[in-house]
Design goal:
heterotetramer, A mainly alpha, B mainly alpha, C mainly alpha, D mainly alpha, B: Helix Hairpins, C: mainly alpha, 2 domains, 78% helix, globular
C-alpha cells in the first residue's frame, strides 16, 4: 500500500505548513488533526524498512519501523497531541510552526534507519527547538537559546564526524548496534551523550528549558532527550559504561534540584534524573532492563509533560515560577493542584501510578545482574525524586505559606491536556500490560508483587518524613533568588571570561610583538637609512601589488628549490 | 660549453629586472613598463630558441636549405599582440585611476582607499549605535 | 629615474633593440611587429598617458632590499635551471626535430605560400590567430568601456578655438604629413598583401594603417579626425573584421570540412588555402587597424577632456 | 553539425560578441547574449552526453592533424567544466539586464555584454582546447575582458582592484607562457597529448622542472591559492554584481581545470606527485588557505568581501582534495567545482539583488533585511548552509567525499582540520544571518522591497539546483567520478 511509504514526519511537516498559513479555529482543528491522523496511520504500518534510496555510495533508509522505534513513535504522537492541545491558546505562529517541525524531526530521528538521516533530524531537532526558547523573547532566553543551539549543533557535528569515521571503518551507514570499539563508536557515543544530558554535558538542559515559553518547555521535555535515549538503546545496549554514567545522572541532579528555586528548573533537573534511570537500563542491556528503560521513557514523556504543564499553568496564570514567590495556590487552582499531584505521584513511582510500573523494572534488572551498588544508588535517587519532584514542587507551588496570589485555574485547553496526561498516568499504573504489550521484548514481568510494592511504599514514606522533619525544623534549604550554577559555570562565566582574557591577551601580545618588531625594524632601518642616506621609507614597503608580485617570485623560488633539491 | 646558454641568462636577467620593477616601483606607469620588459624577455626566450645556427628566415626561397624554426615566431606574434592589448588596457586603467584618485602612485591610492574604508565603517557603527 | 618621459623613451628604444635582435634571430615577422607595436603604438600610448598624468614620478621612494634579494635569488635559481637546456642555435635540438620540420618541408605543397610563418599563422594555427584577433578586439572594447565619455558635450567654442590655433602652428609638419599619409596607407596595403611572400601580413598592415590615421589625428586635432572617421564606423569595422575571420571558418564548416579548413573553400585545396588566408588577413587587418585607432581616439579624447576642464577651470579662476 | 559541436561551443559566444557591437540597443543585446549563452549551454549538454556515451572527442581545427594543427579535445573533465561554465553564465545572464541598470551607465551596457560574452568565450576556449599555447591565447581573452568588466564597478576602488588584477593576471599568464615555452623547447610540440607522451623522456632535466614550476605558479596565481590570493577579494568585491556572480562561479574553476590538466595529463601523475613534493606543498597551502581566508572572512565588514574570502577558502578545500591524488579525492575536487559554482553564483546573485535594492552590501545594512527581502535572504542562508556543508545541500556531498578521501588515505588529522575549517564557515555565515534576522534595521534606513523577479528566478533556480544535487547527487557524481577515473588512467 502506498500509504506505508509515508514516514510520520511528513504529516508534521505538512502540519507546520498549515500552521504557517492558517489562522484561528481552522488552524487549531488542523493542528490537532495532524497527530491523530499520523498516529492512526502509524498504527497501521507493519514493521520493516519502508523507504530506501541510494545516496553517495550508501544505502539510506529514512523510514525503518520496528518495535523499538514504534514504541517511541507512539509516545511522541501522544506527547505531540497533548502538547498541541496544551498550546492551543497560543497565537504565536513562530511557536506553532517550530513546534510542529520539532515534533516532526523527533519522529524522523526515531524512524531513521541510517546515521545520515539520523544526523539530519538530529540537527533539525536543534534548529527547530531553539525557536521555542527564543519565542519567549527575553534577553535571557535569547542567550540561553544561543548556548543551547551551539551545544546541540556541536553534538550534531560530532555525530557527523562519527558517522564519517564509521562509514570509513565499516563501509556502511546502518544505524544499528555500534558499540564502543573504535574512534567512530566513541564519537557517536559522545554525540548521543550530549543530547542525552550526560553529567558535565547536561547544562544545556537545565540552562535552556526553564527559559523557554510555557508551552515550549512541554514540547522540549518530550523529544530531545528521548531521541537520545532511543539512539543509545539502539546503538549501545549493554555498554557497561552507561550504567555508571546513568547512576551518576540519577543522583547528582537531586542536590541541585533541592536547592533550586525556579520550579521549572527543578523539573529540568529531575528530567536528567529520570533519563539516568533509562541510561542505566540501557547499560545493563538485558531484555528486562531495556524494556524498563524504554517503558520508563514512555512514561516519563507523559508524566514529565504533565508536571511541566502544571508548572507552565502556574507560570501562565501568575507570571511567577520561583518557589519562594509562590504558595497557597490550591485554593484558587484546585484542578491544577490535583493534576500536579498525579504527576508528582507518577514520577515518584507510587504504586498504581505509571512511574512505578517502569522504574521498578530497571531496578529489578539491576538487582538481577548483580549491580548491588547501582541498585542502592537508584534507590537513593528514587527517594530524592520523591523528595524534590513529588513533594517539593506541589508543596511550594500550591501549599506552603500563602503568597497571596489569587490566580484561577488555567484555560480549558490546558486543563484538558493535563487531564489526558493524568488519565494516562493512572491508566498505565493500573493496567500496565497494555504498555508491556508494546515493549520490544516479552519478559512476563509483573510489577505488582508484594516486595516491590512494600519496598517502594516504605521508601516513599521515609522520604516524606525527611521532608516534613526538615521543613519543620527550618533546616530545609531556603529558596533563594539565585541562579544555581553547577558545571555550566564553566561556559557561562568562565569561558567568556577566559576567552575574553585570552583574546585580549592575544591581541595584546600580538600588538606588543608587532610593535616591538616594528620598533626594532624601525630602529634598524633608520640606522641603515641614516647610513645610506635614504630616510625611513624602507618601512613603507607593504604595497599590496608589490608584495603580491613578490609572493609570486617567492613561490617560484620555492617550487624551483624544492624540485632541484629532490 | 655552458657559454652556449648565454641567451637564456640574458632572458632570466631581463625577466627578473621586469619583475623587480613591478615589485619595487609604486608608480603605476612604471609598473606597466616593468610588465612590458617582463613580457619582452619571454619573446626573446622563444625567438632565441627558434634560432638554428646557419639557418635563415623561414621564407621559402631558392637555394636555402636551413631555416630557423617558424613556430615560435608565430607564437610570439600572438604574444606581442597580447602584450600590447594588455598595455593598452592597463594604461586606460591608469588614466581612470588618475581621474578618480588624482594620483598614480600606489602609496597615495592605498592611503585614500584606507580612508574610504575607515569612513564607511565609521558610518556603519554610527548607524548601529543611533 | 624620475622622469617618466625618459622611461618611456627608453622602453621604446629597448623595443627597437629587441626588434633588431629578432631580425638577427631570423624572426623578421616578429621584428616587424615588435617595431610597429612595441616601439610604435605602445610608446605612443604611454606618452599620451604621461601627458595626462604628469611626467614625473613622486620622489620619496626607496628600493626595497628584500624584493631585490628575492628577485636575485629567484633569478639565480632560474639560471641554475637553465643548465639542462639545449644550447643556443643547435640544429638538432628537440624543438627543431618534432613538429617544425613538417611546416618547413610540406607547407609549400599543402598551403602554397612561401612565407612559412604566414602559413603556420594563418592556416596550421589559424585558430590561435583568430584568438589573437579576439584579444585585440577585447582590448579595444575594454578600453572603450573604460574611457568612452558617452555623448560628447557641446564643444566649448573658446577651447576649440585654442585648439585650432595650436594646430596651425606647425604648418610645415602638417603639409609634409599630408603628403606622407597616402604613402603610408599605400605601404600598409602593400604589407597586407605581401604577407604571403615576405614579412608582413594583416597585423602589421593594420598597425601601419592605424599609425597613419593617428599621425593625422595628432596634427589636425581630434575633432577633425572624428569628422573623417567617426566612432561607430570604427566599431563597425572592428566587429566586421572579427566576423569576417570567423565566417571564413563557418563557411568552410558549411562546406563539410572542419572549422578553418580552407581546403574546402575552393575546388582546388591550394587555391582554397590562398583564398582563406587572403580573407582572414583582411579580417585581421581591419580589426587591428580599427581597434588601434579606437584605442588612440579614446585616449586622446580623455586627454582633451581633461585639458578642456583645466582650461575652463583656469578661465574661471582668472575671472574670479 | 553534431561533429562540429566542440568548436561551436566556443565559436557561438565568440561570434555573438562582435554582432552585439552591431546591434547596439541594450535590451536587444541582452536578449541576444542570453540566447548565445543558452545555445552554448545546450551544446555543452550535448557534448557531455556524447562524451559519456562514446568517449573522448577530438576535433582538428583547420583539418590539420594533431601535433601540427590545433586540436580540440573533449573528455569527461572538459565536458563537465564546459557544462558548469556555460550553465552558470546563462543563469546569471538572466539577471544581468536588471542588475546593470543600476550599476553601470546606460551607454556602456552593450560593451558590458560584449565583454561578458568574450570572457565566456575565453573560459570555454581554455577548457576545450588540447593545445598548450591555445590555452594562453584564450586565457588572455578571458583575462582582458575580466579586467575591463571589473573596472566597470561603481566604486573607484574597482579601478584599483582591476589594475592590481591586471598586473597579477599578466604575470600569471606570462608565467604560463614561459612554462609552455620551456616545455616546447624540450619536446618540440605544443599539443597536450603529444606533450604527455614526449615529456617522460626528458622528465629528469632541470628545464622541465623549471617549466613545471612556472606553470604551477602561474596557474596558482589565477587560482588565487594562498598566498597568491591577494588580488581576489577586492576584485570580486568591487566588480559589478553580475560579474562577481559569474567569475566567482567560473574563473577559479577554469584555473583549477588547468592545474588538473597540466599536472595529470601533461606532466603525468608520476612526475607531478613523485618527482616533486607537490602533494605536501599543496596540502599545506590548501589548509593554510582555508584557515587564513576563513578567519579573514569572519572579520570583514562588507558581505561581498566575506564571500570573496570564502571563495579563497573553498579553493583551499579543492586543492586539498586534489593533493590526495586518489580517485575519491579527485572526484571530491571535481564535485566541489560543480557544487561551489552552484552556491557561489547563487549567493553573489542574491547579493546583487541586495545591491539593487540597497545600493551597498555593508554588513550593517543587512540588519533586519530578513523581513524585508525574505526570498533573497533565504537564498543567501541556504547558500551559506551549503558553504558550511550542511546535509541536503550540495556542500555536504562534496565535503563528505573530501573527508572520505582523506580518511581513505589515513590523513585523519587533515580531516579534522577540514571540519574545523567548516566551523569557521559557520561563524561567518552566522554573522550575516544574525544581522538579517535578529537585528533591527539601522536607524534612518528606508525599508526596501523584495528583489525584482528577474533576480529571483535565477537565484532560486540555482538554489533549487543546490538542494536537488544535494539530495540526488547521482548525476554530478557519475560525471565527476568518470572524469577522475579517466584522469588517473583507470578504465571505468
Amino acid at each position: 500500500m502506498w500509504m506505508i511509504e509515508i514516514p510520520p514526519f511528513i504529516p508534521f511537516l505538512i502540519g507546520a505548513l498549515i500552521a504557517a498559513f492558517t489562522r484561528g479555529v481552522l488552524r487549531n482543528i488542523l493542528m490537532i488533526a495532524v497527530p491523530i491522523i499520523s498516529g492512526l496511520h502509524l498504527w497501521m504500518v507493519p514493521e520493516g524498512i519502508h523507504l530506501q534510496f541510494a545516496f553517495l555510495d550508501y544505502q539510506l533508509s529514512p523510514y525503518r519501523v520496528d518495535k523499538l522505534s514504534l514504541m517511541f513513535g507512539y509516545v511522541f504522537h501522544i506527547a505531540a497531541f497533548i502538547a498541541i492541545i496544551y498550546s492551543l491558546h497560543v497565537k504565536d505562529t513562530l511557536q506553532q510552526v517550530s513546534a510542529m517541525l520539532y515534533a516532526g524531526s523527533g519522529l524522523g530521528a526515531v524512524f531513521a534507519g541510517d546515521l545520515l538521516t539520523l544526523f539530519v533530524f538530529w540537527e533539525l531537532l536543534a534548529f527547530t527547538s531553539v525557536f521555542l526558547i527564543w519565542a519567549r523573547r527575553t534577553p535571557q532566553s535569547y542567550v540561553a537559546g544561543m548556548r543551547y543551539l551551539i551545544i546541540q549543533v556541536l553534538s550534531g557535528v560530532i555525530l557527523l564526524v562519527g558517522a564519517l569515521f564509521y562509514a570509513a571503518e565499516n563501509g556502511t551507514l546502518d544505524f544499528s548496534y555500534i558499540g564502543l570499539d573504535g574512534i567512530a563508536g566513541w564519537l557517536i557515543f559522545i554525540a548521543f551523550g550530549i543530547k542525552c544530558a550526560f553529567p558535565v554535558a547536561h547544562n544545556w538542559l537545565t540552562d535552556a528549558y526553564p527559559e523557554a515559553t510555557v508551552t515550549g518547555t512541554v514540547f522540549l521535555s518530550a523529544f530531545t532527550t528521548k531521541v537520545a535515549v532511543y539512539a543509545l538503546a539502539r546503538s549501545y545496549p549493554g555498554t557497561e559504561l552507561l550504567i555508571y554514567i546513568g547512576a551518576a545522572m540519577t543522583c547528582f541532579p537531586i542536590f541541585f534540584a533541592v536547592i533550586e528555586n525556579d520550579l521549572r528548573r527543578v523539573l529540568a533537573y529531575s528530567l536528567i534524573n529520570q533519563v539516568g534511570f533509562m541510561v542505566v537500563g540501557i547499560g545493563i542491556g538485558t531484555a528486562l532492563a531495556i524494556n524498563g528503560a524504554v517503558s520508563h521513557a514512555f512514561n516519563d514523556v507523559i508524566f514529565k509533560g504533565l508536571l511541566f504543564m502544571s508548572m507552565g499553568a502556574v507560570l501562565h496564570m501568575t507570571g511567577k515560577i520561583n518557589g519562594s514567590d509562590l504558595g497557597g495556590l490550591y485554593k484558587t487552582m484546585p484542578k491544577t493542584t490535583i493534576l500536579c499531584i498525579v504527576g508528582a505521584a507518577s514520577i515518584s513511582a507510587f504504586p498504581l501510578f505509571s512511574g512505578f510500573v517502569s522504574k521498578s523494572m530497571v531496578m529489578s534488572a539491576a538487582l538481577e545482574e548483580g549491580y548491588d551498588w547501582i541498585w542502592l544508588m537508584l534507590l537513593f535517587a528514587s527517594a530524592g525524586v520523591f523528595h524534590h519532584a513529588g513533594i517539593k514542587i506541589p508543596y511550594f507551588a500550591f501549599f506552603a505559606h500563602d503568597s497571596g496570589l489569587k490566580a484561577s485555574d488555567p484555560p480549558k485547553n490546558m486543563l484538558f491536556a493535563m487531564t489526558i496526561s493524568a488519565g494516562l498516568c493512572i491508566a498505565i499504573g493500573i493496567y500496565p500490560s497494555a504498555l508491556y504489550a508494546l515493549l520490544p521484548y516479552d519478559t512476563g514481568y509483573n510489577p505488582y508483587d508484594a516486595t516491590h510494592v512494600l519496598a517502594q511504599t516504605q521508601l516513599l514514606f521515609f522520604s516524606a518524613l525527611a521532608f516534613v522533619w526538615l521543613n519543620l525544623k527550618g533546616m530545609y534549604p531556603p529558596e533563594l533568588h539565585s541562579t544555581n550554577l553547577d558545571c555550566d559555570w564553566v561556559y557561562r562565566r568562565a569561558m567568556p571570561l577566559v576567552f575574553q582574557n585570552m583574546f585580549s591577551a592575544i591581541w595584546k601580545i600580538d600588538r606588543m610583538v608587532r610593535d616591538t618588531i616594528k620598533e626594532k625594524l624601525g630602529h634598524s632601518f633608520t640606522y641603515l637609512a641614516s647610513k645610506n642616506n635614504r630616510l625611513s621609507s624602507l618601512l613603507s614597503r607593504n604595497h599590496p601589488s608589490g608584495s603580491m608580485a613578490m609572493w609570486v617570485a617567492v613561490m617560484l623560488a620555492i617550487y624551483l628549490l624544492l624540485s632541484f633539491v629532490k | 660549453m655552458i657559454i652556449g646558454l648565454y641567451n637564456d641568462w640574458v632572458v632570466v636577467v631581463l625577466m627578473m629586472i621586469g619583475l623587480y620593477i613591478v615589485i619595487a616601483h609604486g608608480n603605476l606607469i612604471k609598473k606597466i613598463v616593468g610588465l612590458a620588459i617582463f613580457q619582452t624577455s619571454v619573446f626573446i626566450l622563444y625567438i632565441s630558441m627558434a634560432k638554428v645556427e646557419g639557418g635563415s628566415a623561414p621564407i621559402l626561397a631558392e637555394g636555402i636549405k636551413q631555416f630557423s624554426n617558424p613556430l615560435p615566431h608565430v607564437l610570439i606574434l600572438t604574444a606581442i599582440v597580447v602584450g600590447v592589448a594588455t598595455t593598452a588596457l592597463g594604461l586606460a586603467l591608469v588614466i581612470r585611476i588618475n581621474e578618480a584618485y588624482g594620483s598614480i602612485e600606489e602609496e597615495d591610492i592605498q592611503h585614500l582607499d584606507n580612508q574610504t574604508q575607515d569612513e564607511t565603517e565609521l558610518q556603519a557603527t554610527e548607524g548601529e549605535q543611533s | 629615474m624620475k622622469d617618466l618621459f625618459a622611461v618611456v623613451m627608453l622602453l621604446g628604444i629597448y623595443s627597437l633593440l629587441s626588434a633588431s635582435f629578432f631580425v638577427a634571430m631570423d624572426a623578421v615577422d616578429v621584428a616587424f611587429t615588435e617595431a610597429a607595436v612595441g616601439a610604435g603604438i605602445s610608446t605612443l600610448l604611454m606618452l599620451v598617458v604621461i601627458t595626462i598624468t604628469g611626467r614625473s614620478e613622486k620622489t620619496t621612494r626607496h628600493k626595497p632590499l628584500l624584493a631585490l634579494l628575492v628577485v636575485v635569488f629567484t633569478g639565480s635559481m632560474l639560471i641554475y635551471g637553465t643548465f639542462d637546456m639545449p644550447y643556443f642555435g643547435i640544429a638538432d635540438a628537440p624543438i627543431h626535430s618534432h613538429v617544425a620540420p613538417r611546416y618547413i618541408q610540406e607547407s609549400m605543397k599543402e598551403v602554397g605560400i612561401p612565407n612559412i610563418v604566414t602559413s603556420v599563422l594563418a592556416s596550421y594555427r589559424a585558430f590561435d590567430t583568430f584568438g589573437e584577433v579576439v584579444v585585440i578586439f577585447t582590448a579595444g572594447i575594454g578600453v572603450m568601456a573604460l574611457l568612452s565619455v558617452g555623448r560628447r558635450p557641446e564643444e566649448n567654442e573658446k577651447t576649440t578655438a585654442i585648439d585650432d590655433s595650436m594646430h596651425e602652428q606647425y604648418l610645415v609638419i602638417r603639409i609634409v604629413t599630408k603628403m606622407l599619409i597616402p604613402f603610408i596607407l599605400l605601404y600598409a596595403l602593400y604589407v597586407q598583401f605581401h604577407g604571403d611572400f615576405g614579412p608582413g601580413g594583416g597585423f602589421q598592415a593594420g598597425v601601419i594603417f592605424a599609425a597613419a590615421i593617428i599621425l593625422y589625428t595628432m596634427l589636425f586635432g581630434l575633432t577633425t579626425a572624428r569628422k573623417v572617421i567617426n566612432q561607430s564606423f570604427i566599431q563597425f569595422i572592428a566587429a566586421a573584421g572579427v566576423l569576417l575571420y570567423g565566417c571564413v571558418g563557418i563557411v568552410s564548416m558549411l562546406n563539410g570540412a572542419n572549422f578553418f579548413d580552407y581546403n574546402a573553400l575552393a575546388s582546388d585545396p591550394v587555391a582554397g588555402q590562398h583564398l582563406g588566408i587572403l580573407l582572414i588577413e583582411w579580417g585581421v587587418g581591419c580589426t587591428v587597424a580599427s581597434v588601434m585607432i579606437m584605442i588612440f581616439f579614446n585616449f586622446a579624447e580623455r586627454r582633451e577632456m581633461q585639458q578642456n576642464n583645466e582650461k575652463i577651470n583656469n578661465i574661471e579662476g582668472d575671472s574670479l | 553539425m553534431i561533429s562540429h559541436l566542440p568548436v561551436l561551443q566556443v565559436i557561438v559566444p565568440l561570434m555573438a560578441a562582435p554582432i552585439c557591437l552591431l546591434l547596439k540597443r541594450s535590451q536587444l543585446v541582452w536578449l541576444f547574449s542570453l540566447f548565445a549563452s543558452a545555445i552554448a549551454f545546450i551544446i555543452s549538454v550535448l557534448l557531455l552526453q556524447q562524451v559519456m556515451t562514446s568517449g573522448v572527442i577530438s576535433y582538428e581545427l583547420g583539418g590539420w592533424e594533431a601535433p601540427w594543427g590545433i586540436e580540440y579535445r573533449i573528455d569527461q573533465l572538459n565536458a563537465f567544466l564546459l557544462l558548469i561554465i556555460s550553465g552558470v553564465s546563462t543563469v546569471v545572464l538572466i539577471a544581468a539586464q536588471t542588475s546593470i541598470e543600476k550599476e553601470i551607465p546606460k551607454e556602456k551596457h552593450t560593451l558590458f555584454y560584449i565583454l561578458y560574452l568574450l570572457s565566456l568565450t575565453g573560459m570555454l576556449g581554455i577548457v576545450s582546447t588540447g593545445d598548450a599555447f591555445n590555452v594562453f591565447v584564450f586565457l588572455e581573452i578571458s583575462s582582458l575582458s575580466a579586467y575591463a568588466l571589473i573596472a566597470l564597478g561603481q566604486d573607484r576602488r574597482a579601478l584599483w582592484a582591476s589594475y592590481q588584477y591586471l598586473i597579477m593576471g599578466t604575470i600569471g599568464a606570462t608565467f604560463i607562457l614561459i612554462g609552455i615555452g620551456l616545455m616546447y623547447q624540450m619536446t618540440g610540440t605544443l599539443n597536450m597529448q603529444d606533450l604527455s607522451q614526449r615529456l617522460p623522456d626528458v622528465a629528469q632535466t632541470r628545464t622541465v622542472f623549471t617549466a613545471f614550476a612556472f606553470v604551477i605558479v602561474g596557474v596558482c596565481l589565477k587560482l588565487a591559492l594562498f598566498p597568491l590570493h591577494l588580488w581576489l577579494p577586492n576584485a570580486y568585491t568591487y566588480a559589478p554584481s553580475i560579474v562577481t556572480a559569474f567569475f566567482a562561479a567560473t574563473a577559479t574553476k577554469v584555473a583549477i581545470y588547468l592545474l588538473i590538466r597540466f599536472t595529470f595529463t601533461v606532466f603525468g601523475l608520476s612526475f607531478s606527485f613523485t618527482t616533486l613534493p607537490l602533494q605536501e606543498l599543496f596540502l599545506l597551502l590548501g589548509l593554510t588557505g582555508i584557515f587564513v581566508a576563513s578567519s579573514a572572512a569572519i572579520y570583514q565588514k562588507n558581505v561581498k568581501h566575506v564571500f570573496a574570502y570564502s571563495s579563497i577558502a573553498q579553493v583551499g578545500y579543492i586543492v586539498v582534495g586534489f593533493s590526495t591524488s586518489t580517485i575519491t579525492g579527485l572526484t571530491a575536487t571535481l564535485l566541489h567545482l560543480f557544487n561551489h559554482a552552484l552556491m557561489k553564483s547563487a549567493i553573489f546573485l542574491a547579493l546583487g539583488a541586495v545591491v539593487y535594492r540597497l545600493g551597498n552590501v555593508q554588513l550593517s545594512s543587512f540588519n533586519g533585511l530578513g523581513r524585508q527581502m525574505p526570498l533573497t535572504m533565504a537564498a543567501i542562508v541556504i547558500g551559506g548552509l551549503s558553504l558550511i556543508g550542511v546535509p541536503l545541500t550540495v556542500g555536504f556531498v562534496s565535503k563528505w567525499y573530501l573527508l572520505t578521501a582523506l580518511l581513505e588515505k589515513g590523513w585523519w588529522p587533515v580531516a579534522i582540520l577540514i571540519l574545523l575549517g567548516s566551523l569557521l564557515a559557520v561563524i561567518y555565515v552566522w554573522r550575516i544571518v544574525e544581522a538579517a534576522y535578529f537585528k533591527k534595521p539601522l536607524a534612518g534606513s528606508v525599508p526596501v522591497k523584495e528583489a525584482p523577479l528577474f533576480f529571483l528566478i535565477p537565484i532560486w533556480l540555482l538554489i533549487t539546483a543546490n538542494i536537488y544535487f544535494g539530495i540526488d547527487s547521482r548525476l554530478s557524481l557519475k560525471v565527476a567520478s568518470a572524469a577522475a577515473q579517466s584522469l588517473l588512467g583507470v578504465s571505468p
